[in-house]
User: Fold this.
Amino acid sequence: MADQNRRKRRAQARSPVDIAQIAALIDRGAHEEALRLSRDGLAANPNAQELLEAAGVAAVMLARWDLARRYFVKLTGLAADDVRHWMRLGYILFSSGDMKGASKAYAAAIERAPGEPEFRVNRALCEVRLGNLDAAETLFQAALKLAPSHPGALQGLSNIYREIGQPFEAMGYLRRLAETDQPRGVDFWVEYGELAMSTYDVPDVRRALAQASEPAAGDANLSARLAHLWNRIGEPEKALACVRRARSLAPDDAEIANEEATMNIDAGDTAAAAAIYRENIERHPDHASSYFGLSQVVKFSADVPDHAALVETMEAALKRRLSDPVFVHFGLAKAYNELKDPVRAFEHAKRGNASRFRQYPYAPARDRTKLAALKAAYRAGGFDTDVKPVAAGAPSPIFITGMPRSGTTLVEQFLGAHPLVAACGEMMLLPFVLATHCPAADALPATPQAARIGEIYRAQLAALTQGKPRGTDKLPSNIWNVGAILSAMPDARVIIMERDPLDVGLSCYFSLFRRGVNFTFDLASIGAYQRMCDDIAAHWLAVFGDRVLRVRYEDLIADPDAGMRRVLDYCGLEWHPDVARFFEVRRRVGTASFNQVNQPIYSTSVGRWHAYESQLKPLIDALADKNEAPPVAGA
Assistant:
């Protein structure tokens, strides 16, 4: 029987194979049969190119990458000038994860067909996967020279510029893609809106929302992302409607539930947020950020039995396999602090911060280098400091800078209550503009460059101020950009907040930041960073004099009326009674200070560090260390 089967296979191998029949099988999706027939034919004629190609295509359709690779490698040897074989080999290698091999195959295709943009785009995608963004950018640009509206090249360049922190450049390519005839689905418009939001281009965000809102209605994830965009542009009702639709589509999604809670907080409804967090904890007891979220909307008191039960629940949660225990540690740190138990509060803060610091260590050397460069670039009398007129209708920015947790949010809130001021929150707008138009941000920009920076910043700010002549930007780290600010926008106002360094340090240590301020996860690092902030603040005051206003948090708390009037005078604003009632105005805060600024000014945060003095030695030592020793990880 075995001999009979062997004779049958040899007879089949000798019979001619109908290549048209194999092609028809591939077209019908009968890939296994097509592959079998192709291999039968190759047994008799191993160099038959049509059969090698058919076998390779069938193997590709079956995702049998090693087999497909073998056939097309052989084809590129037999017919090296046939660009189709190199193209398919590139696809096979890319699909199987061999990016280096795929890039070489596409390079061979480009050599044989230099006028075909698709091969350059495909090779660029390989280089992106390999982390060679410069090479990928060159290839995408070359593809655009051949085909200026090539969607893959436009999308690829947008992705690269977004990856390297230049969203303005990224947005330019995405706008070009939006103008092509390429069909664009809802995913594209959501991405478009998110990128536009990163450049604070509100009109473009609204354009994306108009295109995406209806098509996204049946998709929970897209609806949640759209809700975030509505929230960011100050449309809380639309944001809540969108996120509630997302929850109805995915009722078991803990992250979407937390998004709804956050949007309720931004809308001023902390009770609704607390209810959502409690429900989420009940349904998803391993979802750590829900415990943290609930802890932030509760003012813990020993007189409320429910609060003691919540603390017990959070302590018990740490014995579970949580998604990220750090959230619970920070929640308990806040709870025990408010319950006047500093030992337990600090222990949880220490454990949470130690975990984050291991993940995201802080290296002060880079900031020290930047500090020295800024002091060298900006010297008193070294450049024009005259305030020049700005275009009619262009908003004048008010920058509120300093250490995190130094009172920046409080100042923005009472300024934002003034009818002539729009509170725009913490914006990455200026760092992004500088990254695009002044890469050496520690160097003095040339006059035309500075003017361009100012124009771009004001154009984006105008969409947020909605006709108001002033807009605030309270990104604390803009303290490093004061020289660039006053070079680019001489009419700008710059407020530098100061607060007792031990209170600031403790508050930073008890706050779970999510935006890469890694120094806050370690007491010695906080001290090292704060010393540099003090140094650069003193330098700006020496260079710019009364064009910069120093505001001490403790003075503002001690005499709010006098402090507010002083800030308003500096900003060229007359007193308005709404300023004193700033806490009655509900607006999105979006920072760790959302609870504090929605109530009248209070003094309980002044001198808070005394209760933790024994635990703050690494911070105290770092603040006093003239040698600026490197921080101790996990202190």
Notes: The two ends are 79 Å apart (CA to CA). The longest helix spans residues 523-544.
